[in-house]
């Protein structure tokens, strides 16, 4: 439970080649006690294929180091009905969410969040 602000996004190919390392991002992530998730992301235009900007809300389930966002309402590419699997790394007041590569792509993204509340 809590609120985080986004402070960096890294996108790499599965070969290890870095596509984007962007500290100039905006975003908020909130998990509520009743199992809701709210996400808003804004990434500058140089992101590949509009991969990350958008917003969604829905429910969340947690399984060990995996957080699963079940999108109820969202903008493209986070369409309603999407199931977004995130591997999470928690350390102190920072959280790193690793996004699985979208089908048909060879990229992964890491979103670095700072807890604010």
Number of strands: 9
What spatial order of strands do you see in the largest sheet? Answer: 1-3-4-5-6-7-8-9
Mean pLDDT: 81
**Which sheet architecture does the biggest sheet show?**
8 strands, antiparallel, barrel
Provide a descriptive summary of the structure in words.
By secondary structure, the protein is mainly beta. It contains no helices and nine strands. An eight-stranded antiparallel beta barrel has the order 1-3-4-5-6-7-8-9. Strand 5 and strand 6 (66-74) form a beta hairpin.
Chain-wise SSE layout:
Blueprint: E1 2-13, E2 18-22, E3 26-31, E4 36-42, E5 54-63, E6 66-74, E7 83-91, E8 94-99, E9 107-115
Antiparallel strand pairs: 1-2, 1-3, 1-9, 3-4, 4-5, 5-6, 6-7, 7-8, 8-9
Give a quick set of tags describing it.
eight-stranded antiparallel beta barrel, single chain, 117 residues
Task: Provide a compact summary of the structure.
This protein has 117 residues and is mainly β. It is built from no helices and 9 strands. It has strands spanning 2-13, 18-22, 26-31, 36-42, 54-63, 66-74, 83-91, 94-99, 107-115.
């Amino acid at each position: 439970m809590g609120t985080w602000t986004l402070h960096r996004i890294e996108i790499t190919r599965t070969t290890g080649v870095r596509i984007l390392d962007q500290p100039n991002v905006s975003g908020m992530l909130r998990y509520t006690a009743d199992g809701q998730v709210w996400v808003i992301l804004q990434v500058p235009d140089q992101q590949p294929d509009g991969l990350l900007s958008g917003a969604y809300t829905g429910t969340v389930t947690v399984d060990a180091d995996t957080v699963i966002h079940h999108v109820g309402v969202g903008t493209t590419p986070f369409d309603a009905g999407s199931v977004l699997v995130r591997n999470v790394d928690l350390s102190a007041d920072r959280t790193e969410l690793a996004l699985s590569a979208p089908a048909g792509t060879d990229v992964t993204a890491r979103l670095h969040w700072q807890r604010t509340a």
